[in-house]
Amino acid sequence: MGSVGEAGVTPSAIPVIDFAKWNTSTSKAEQLAVAKELTDACRRVGFVYIVNHGLPQDLLDQAFYTAKRLFDLTHEQKMQAPHPDGPEVHRGYSYPGLEKVSQYMDGDEDVGKQLRQVGDCKESYEVGSEENPLQPNVWLPESTLPGFKEFTTKFYWECNKVAQSLLRAMALGIGLDDPEYLIKYHTGHNNQLRLLHYPPVAAADLESKRVARMPAHSDWGSITMLFQDDCGGLEVEDPTTPGKFVPATPMPGACVMNVGDLLMRWSNDSLKSTLHRVTLPPLSDRIEGAQRMTRARYSIPYFVSADPESLVECLPACTDAQNPVKYEPVTQRAYSKVRAKLQYPKSKPVSAAA
Ligand SMILES: O=C(O)CCC(=O)C(=O)O
Ligand SMILES: [Fe+2]
């Protein structure tokens, strides 16, 4: 990773890419330079800040305002759109403790259960495409939160436009002949918009690991675009020093983009899907009062996934005599099934928090 003061590197050591030229330049050379910069950052770090991504600030402000209105509802109101039981569908409202993010991949249910004992102190609401029969949306009644469905649907598709630009740039940066190569597998109908709220929690509980905001994990899909408020707490593993996490300090208006596991596999491990977590806000003014409560945090990840029947096999530009193909082809659907099984308990925990 780069260091403080190096060109294009923030104090948090995550590269910053200005995407304005990709969106506006008519010069192929200028576009290629942005594409290479982006792909290089994905190879080295797997995480990157994108500025001038194309989503207007007032739309982002409205998205955070919408999330706040949602999470300010009572538990009973939010439970009018409950996340369905089981690991297959990721839609609707998950109350604090329902989802336990776990990096455990071996499939032994007992070990998975142990890892899930510390509930994550967060609540979330997930929205997808209305044209995804495998993952039907779960909506609140319109009267409970007027305009919610309309706004989140609009925001979902606006995010997809940016996602497609990023995928086009990455195809070019990876060296694929067809700039549409990745887009062909990403219609946008299998993406997931997630509104996340981390309620205030005693700093001491996070320090002692009695509760977690979100433990270290990697994302499963192709890329994730994340918008965060100014609270802080997101940390990213330094790929050159396993176990060392560096802050992904909030940068107003920027989107934090990262590579997911499936794109890492697709690229024969040339792009990195990097561990990240959400922990204590680093600044003391984000911890308030005699009880040392952390401030509430809001974030909005947008998970970009390939369509379910996409066959993920090593990208043509990612293998040669020195780099033989490492993985068997797999469909997105088969791959995500394995990952999803570990994220949600088979039945609801007894102490469903309100
Ligand atoms: O809340 C955040 O900043 C990170 C969220 C995240 O990593 C996830 O939902 O996978
Ligand atoms: Fe994540």
Please outline the helices and strands:
Layout: E1 16-18, H1 20-24, H2 28-44, E2 47-51, H3 57-71, H4 75-78, E3 92-94, H5 109-115, E4 123-127, H6 148-174, E5 192-198, H7 203-207, E6 214-217, E7 223-228, E8 234-237, E9 245-247, E10 255-259, H8 261-266, E11 276-278, E12 287-288, E13 293-294, E14 297-304, E15 311-312, E16 330-331, H9 332-341
Parallel strand pairs: 1-2
Antiparallel strand pairs: 2-10, 3-4, 4-5, 5-14, 6-11, 7-10, 7-14, 8-9, 8-11, 12-13, 15-16
The protein binds 2-oxoglutaric acid (AKG) and fe (ii) ion.
Fe (ii) ion (FE2) is lined by residues 217, 219, 276.
Report on this structure.
It is built from nine helices and 16 strands. With 354 residues, it is an alpha+beta fold. The protein has a single domain (8-340), classed as Jelly Rolls (Sandwich), CATH 2.60.120.330. The strands form four sheets. Strands 1-2-10-7-14-5-4-3 form an eight-stranded mixed sheet. Helix 2 (28-44) packs across helix 6 and helix 3 crosses helix 6. The longest helix has 27 residues, at 148-174. The termini are far apart. Bound molecules: 2-oxoglutaric acid and fe (ii) ion. Fe (ii) ion (FE2) is lined by residues 217, 219, 276. The site of 2-oxoglutaric acid has 11 residues, from strand 5, strand 7, strand 11 and strand 14.
